[in-house]
């Protein structure tokens, strides 16, 4: 009996200790889109890391089927981008990403999150409510890699449920988000890897790139959308000699600007 | 009784010098006593076979004492004492004619009537037989009156015993005052009798004899004894006030204390009365800019004898100025975002921030123009001292030059600003601050460098000193506030900052899992300013882990920002110790003038322009105070009751150095409502320290003889015999009778 109590106490102590720490790095074997070796320092506790949103694709899973579209480019894009963030800024970040599952409330520990292929997301009512609360508390979302009319409609279908009352607008070139670290008043369309094979900058009917966003009442961006672009691919293929450096550079700069903006506004 | 036994008043024995007036020298008296004692001893030994030794010793002792007494009387003991010469000295009779003397607590009569009756029924006559008597009415000062005007009902709104006695002391330079007789309830309401006044009276050697009137304790009363509140505050700030209460006969009852501005209740609290004195801390919001006319009030309790002492007024100047705070952050982190957001919602504070985004890039926010901080952290004092507060985040000490480190220390020490240090990866110990001049200004003893910063979620709680701090107030109710701190989400990280220094206030603590508690928030006054350490950069979880409608984190940060700048002085600071003049007109004004580097400026022209009730307008030039560089003082007289505003400007060569605004009030008919019981302690101390005596009205009838013995005025020295005191005869008889009774009891004749 005494032994049982002792074991219970030890288990309790461990669980309390676990709760007291930042959520730790975890691998997702079978769900990784572009697997890569786990770098050293994967479990370091840091101020920031690349927080990838794990959302459901539901009705719009299509090619991704059960796995969904959330792990597109994962985890290579995340880890290569993190290398850049570590080298180019004073942000204290670890070498690995953090997957944020919308089935938990872990998102509230990560005020910056990234979601890819949101032209295939399909949030539940509870997730819509949670995301709205997240933004109202001060959270920031960067969405990327969605193209053309159809994917925009799918994205807006969930987004407009989060913010039925807030418009999606083009972010002006002079907005601080384009100048907070790098001056990105002039930008180019960042294509996906398909550019290497097709020479096309766009996918589907998404010919014109857009940098759009949703502002709060005090003029601060809460959601940023890299529409008709694929910054994730630019990070993922930064080490690919065939992928043009020009696009990778802008993707890094833009991503870093978005992070620093979210940490300052 | 004393005089019956000892023939002379007690004061004679206290003031006189003792001597032997007979022809014998003192040694002869001692020798004779010794011979007599020896003879009696020899006689006792002769009969030692008749009685036991102890009984023989007792009889010998009594016989020796009697013989010694008789020999002493033959040597003619006497006392030499200075006495006032009849009709050549003046006795000043001061009758308190302030309104508190109208309180009817001397039987069925008022204090004033009882004092008048004492004077009319013989005291003035008996004094008049020995001295010239001068009559004075005592109120704001002492003014001489004739008998007809002495008994006019009390009309003075104040009692200033000290000032009145100083008037008498001044007159004594030209007139032979032998003594002062003060008939009063001791309800002095100008802050007591200061040491200088007592010293002046002692120099004149005039004894002040006091006669006390009034009850020494009311049976049921509660009084607002003091109401302390800062003289100035920023619009929208939380103000900490303290209401001191004193009660008698109300223990166990509940009193409700409120602070009001007009009809608006700003704060309220109920307390159970236990001790005689209690202090009630209250916190309220300063609201918009302007003068805040506050009234601290305790609701009257059933059967209270005096309800006019249940409220006290104060004025707070709520300023519309927009202080600027410089926040230096060494790395992008979430706390920065939420501090900026808190300041964005505060129209009263300008937060200027510089963030090191990369090793060689600084992102600036809140700057007035592109030139502000363009060259990085200020290198000149006048540039840094242009800010009112300073926050040093997670930035290495080595990022600042030694000169900049000294400037940061002087920012609090000389400029008077508030400096906050945040915990972080590069902050405090890990940033190398322990080895810099900045360590001196920190409110904690930094631990030696090592791993002091931990990214471990931890709970927080208030330390005892934080319970009453406006800085830590998350809820208006003190109890709920303490609970709220415990229930707040865990903070994201914390840093070991060491123990608080002596004099520092530990306001809140971190409870890290598996560790002992460690300081979270410590504050300390430093020089003219203040410093604080917040040992975390992870308060942001309070916001991200709470509902978006919960404004605890922005409120906490707004309070912190205001703490840094609320009391930061400008180059010109006007102050007065009396922002509410209670039945008095004298306003002492003190202005401190400094240059851009906040060095004292002694060559300024300082003027105060007063605006008061009924269109009153006046200008006064202040003079440099001796011994204090950059300080200018003056007294101004507020002619009537009402609200006043003083605008103080300092100029050098016609160029303005700075200006400040001071608000104050004069309230009449208030002071006499407070401390209405007889202040016997004050009257007794006054008498004792001046060589006089305190009398109750009954004892006072006999004071004439006693005050004859005084060193003041025109005196002659008198020698009074002591051999014929009734007590001596009684003592001799008692010794003889004791011996006879013992002998009879023991059967030895």
Proportion of helical residues of chain B: 25-40%
Q: If helices are DSSP runs of H or I spanning 4 or more residues, what is the number of helices of chain A?
A: 7
Largest interface, C-beta within 8 A: A-B, 32 and 39 residues
The best one-word shape of chain A is globular
Rounded to an integer in angstroms, the radius of gyration calculated over CA atoms of chain A is: 19 Å
What is the rounded Rg of chain B? Answer: 36 Å
Summing up helix and strand content along with how strands pair, one would put the structural category of chain B as alpha/beta
Strand order of the largest sheet of chain A: 3-4-7-6-5
Strand segment tally of chain A: 7
Beta fraction of the residues of chain B? 25-35%
What proportion strand of chain A?
5-15%
Q: Which strands sit side by side, in order, in the main sheet of chain B?
A: 18-17-16-19-20-26-25-24-22
Low confidence ranges of chain B: none
Give the beta-strand count of chain B: 37
Order of helices and strands of chain A: HEHEEHEHEHEEHH
Largest sheet entry of chain A: 5 strands, mixed
Q: Structural class of the helices, strands and pairings of chain A? A: alpha/beta
Give the overall shape of chain B: elongated
Residues in helix, % of chain A: 25-40%
Cα(first) to Cα(last) distance of chain A is: 55 Å
């Amino acid at each position: 009996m005494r032994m049982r109590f002792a074991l219970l106490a030890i288990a309790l102590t461990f669980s309390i200790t676990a709760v007291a720490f930042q959520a730790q790095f975890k691998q997702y074997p079978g769900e990784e889109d572009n697997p890569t070796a786990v770098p050293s320092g994967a479990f370091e506790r840091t101020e920031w890391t690349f927080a990838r949103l794990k959302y459901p694709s539901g009705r719009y899973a299509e090619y991704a089927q059960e796995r969904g579209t959330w792990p597109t480019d994962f985890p290579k894009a995340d880890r290569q981008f993190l290398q850049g963030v570590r080298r180019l800024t004073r942000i204290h970040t670890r070498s690995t990403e953090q997957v944020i599952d919308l089935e938990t409330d872990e998102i509230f520990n990560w005020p910056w999150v990234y979601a890819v292929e949101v032209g295939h997301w399909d949030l539940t009512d509870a997730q819509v409510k949670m995301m709205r609360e997240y933004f109202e508390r001060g959270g920031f979302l960067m969405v990327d890699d969605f193209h053309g009319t159809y994917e925009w409609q799918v994205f807006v279908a969930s987004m407009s449920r989060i913010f039925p009352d807030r418009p999606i607008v083009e972010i002006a070139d002079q907005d601080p988000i384009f100048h907070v670290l790098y001056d990105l008043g002039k930008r180019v369309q960042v294509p996906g890897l398909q550019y290497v094979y097709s020479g096309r900058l766009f996918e589907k009917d998404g010919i014109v790139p857009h940098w759009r966003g949703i502002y709060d009442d005090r003029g601060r961006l809460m959601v940023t959308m890299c529409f008709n672009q694929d910054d994730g691919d630019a990070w993922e293929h930064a080490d690919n000699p065939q992928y043009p450096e020009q696009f990778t550079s802008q993707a890094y700069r833009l991503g870093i600007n978005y992070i620093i903006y979210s940490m300052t506004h | 009784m004393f005089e019956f036994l000892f023939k002379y008043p007690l004061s004679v024995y206290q003031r006189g010098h003792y001597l032997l007036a007979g022809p014998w020298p003192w040694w002869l008296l001692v020798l004779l006593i010794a011979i007599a004692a020896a003879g009696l001893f020899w006689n006792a030994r002769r009969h030692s076979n008749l009685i036991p030794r102890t009984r023989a010793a007792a009889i010998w002792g009594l016989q020796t004492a009697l013989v010694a007494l008789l020999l002493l009387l033959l040597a003619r003991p006497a006392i030499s004492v200075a006495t006032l010469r009849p009709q050549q000295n003046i006795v000043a009779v001061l009758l308190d004619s302030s309104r508190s003397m109208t309180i009817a607590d001397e039987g069925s009569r008022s204090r004033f009537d009882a004092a008048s009756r004492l004077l009319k029924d013989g005291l003035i006559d008996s004094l008049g037989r020995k001295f010239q008597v001068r009559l004075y009415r005592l109120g704001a000062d002492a003014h001489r009156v004739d008998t007809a005007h002495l008994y006019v009902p009390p009309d003075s709104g104040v009692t200033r015993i000290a000032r009145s006695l100083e008037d008498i002391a001044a007159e004594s330079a030209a007139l032979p005052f032998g003594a002062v007789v003060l008939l009063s309830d001791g309800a002095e309401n100008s802050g007591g009798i200061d040491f200088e006044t007592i010293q002046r009276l002692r120099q004149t050697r005039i004894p002040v004899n006091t006669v006390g009137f009034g009850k020494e304790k009311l049976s049921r009363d509660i009084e607002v004894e003091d109401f302390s509140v800062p003289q100035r505050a920023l619009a929208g700030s939380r103000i900490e006030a303290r209401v001191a209460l004193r009660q008698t006969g109300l223990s166990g009852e509940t009193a409700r204390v409120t602070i009001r501005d007009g009809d608006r209740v700003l704060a309220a609290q109920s307390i159970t009365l236990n001790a005689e004195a209690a202090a009630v801390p209250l916190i309220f919001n300063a609201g918009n800019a302007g003068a805040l006319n506050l009234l601290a009030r305790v609701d009257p309790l059933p059967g209270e004898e005096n309800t006019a002492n249940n409220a006290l007024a104060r004025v707070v100047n709520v300023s519309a100025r927009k202080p600027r705070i410089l926040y230096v952050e060494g790395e992008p982190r979430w706390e920065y975002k939420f501090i900026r957001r808190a300041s964005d919602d505060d129209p009263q504070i300008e937060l200027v921030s510089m963030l090191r985004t990369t090793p060689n890039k600084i992102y600036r926010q809140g700057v007035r123009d592109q030139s502000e901080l363009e060259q990085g952290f200020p290198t000149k004092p006048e540039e840094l001292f242009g800010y009112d507060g300073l926050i040093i985040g997670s930035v290495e000490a080595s990022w600042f030059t030694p000169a900049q480190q000294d400037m940061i220390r002087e920012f609090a020490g000389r400029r008077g600003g508030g400096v906050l240090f945040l915990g972080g990866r590069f902050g405090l110990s890990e940033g190398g601050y322990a080895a810099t001049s900045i360590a001196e200004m920190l409110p904690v003893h930094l631990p030696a460098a090592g791993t002091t910063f931990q990214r471990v979620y931890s709970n927080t709680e208030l330390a005892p000193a934080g319970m009453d701090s406006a800085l830590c107030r998350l809820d208006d109710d003190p109890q709920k506030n303490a609970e709220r701190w415990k229930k707040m989400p865990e903070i994201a990280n914390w840093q070991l900052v060491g123990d608080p220094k002596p004099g520092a206030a530990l306001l809140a603590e971190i409870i890290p899992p598996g560790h002992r508690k460690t300081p979270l928030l410590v504050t300390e006054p430093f020089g003219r300013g203040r410093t604080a350490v917040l040992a975390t950069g992870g308060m942001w979880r309070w916001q991200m882990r709470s509902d978006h409608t919960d404004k605890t984190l922005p409120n906490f940060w707004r309070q912190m920002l205001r703490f840094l700048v609320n009391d930061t002085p400008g180059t010109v600071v006007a102050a007065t110790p009396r922002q509410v003049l209670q039945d008095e007109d004298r306003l002492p004004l003190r202005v401190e003038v400094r240059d851009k580097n906040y060095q004292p400026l002694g060559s300024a022209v300082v003027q105060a322009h007063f605006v008061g009730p009924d269109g009153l307008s006046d200008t006064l030039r202040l003079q440099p105070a001796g011994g204090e560089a950059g300080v200018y003082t003056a007294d101004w007289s507020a002619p009537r009751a009402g609200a006043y505003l003083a605008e103080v400007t300092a100029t050098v060569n016609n160029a303005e150095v700075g200006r400040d605004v001071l608000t104050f009030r004069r309230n009449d008919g208030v002071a006499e409502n407070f401390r209405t019981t007889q202040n016997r302690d004050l009257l007794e101390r006054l008498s004792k320290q001046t060589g006089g005596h305190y009398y109750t009205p009954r004892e006072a009838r006999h004071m004439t003889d006693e005050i004859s013995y005084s060193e003041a005025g025109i005196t002659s020295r008198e020698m009074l015999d002591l051999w014929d005191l009734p007590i001596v005869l009684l003592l001799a008889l008692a010794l003889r009778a004791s011996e006879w009774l013992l002998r009879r009891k023991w059967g030895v004749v």
